[in-house]
Amino acid sequence: MRKAKAKKRYLIPDPKFGDQVLTRFVNNLMLDGKKSTAYQIIYDALDIVEARTKENGLEVWKRALANITPAVEVTARRIGGATFQIPSEIRPDRKIAMGMKWLILYAKKRNGRSMSEKLAAEIMAGANNEGAAVKKKEDTHKMAEANKAFSHFRF
Predict the structure, then answer these.
(1) What pLDDT, on the 0 to 100 scale, is given for residue 31?
(2) How confident is the model at residue 115 (pLDDT cuts 50, 70, 90)?
(3) pTM score of the predicted model
(4) CATH among 3.20.20.140, 1.10.510.10, 3.50.50.60, 1.10.455.10 for 20-153
(5) Which of 57, 69, 75, 116 is close enough to 99 for a disulfide, judged by CB 3.0 to 4.6 Å?
């Protein structure tokens, strides 16, 4: 086990909007260390969202992320030879990380020409409480609700 807890590293806000959460999203989106490409993808996606919804792209993205972020999750725990799915609250940092990863994952799985178009489609779906990422959140919540009986095993 680690002696000291790792220090929290603070991110530089993104150049266009000055938002730290957006930088975190870009870091999740980035492949092979190509941050400028990741920035280009997200900015293009936000422009597409703005053009289609006639709203501020960043606000729509934040609304989508809020709709996708889960509140509870289930963790597997062995007790007396049996494995139980125990529902537990999620730390705020992990909530956001899970929401971002689901948004990117289901955007990648979508049909479309470019990643920016797929991401824009998933952002708009998330903002309207639709799409695969929102379904994943609802499934996670349903699973936690179904296993509520085992919540006393939590410590």
Answers:
(1) 94
(2) very high
(3) 0.89
(4) 1.10.455.10
(5) 69
* Residues, the chain: 155
Q: What's CA 17's distance to the chain center, in Å?
A: 19
Handedness of CA 29, 35, 41, 47 (dihedral sign): positive
User: Which residue reads 């939590």 in tokens?
Assistant: 154
- Residue 130 identity (one-letter amino acid): E
One DSSP character per residue, 31-100 reads -TT-HHHHHHHHHHHHHHHHHHHSS-HHHHHHHHHHHH--SEEEEEEEETTEEEEEEEE--HHHHHHHHH
* Token representation of residue 57: 């792209």
Q: Indicate the pLDDT class of residue 49, thresholds 50, 70 and 90.
A: very high
64 is written with which tokens? 């989508």
Neighbouring C-alpha atoms within 13 Å toward the C-beta of 89: 4
Dist. CA 148–CA 72, nearest whole Å: 11
CA 91 to centroid of chain Cα atoms: 13
* Rg (alpha carbons) of the chain, rounded to whole number: 18
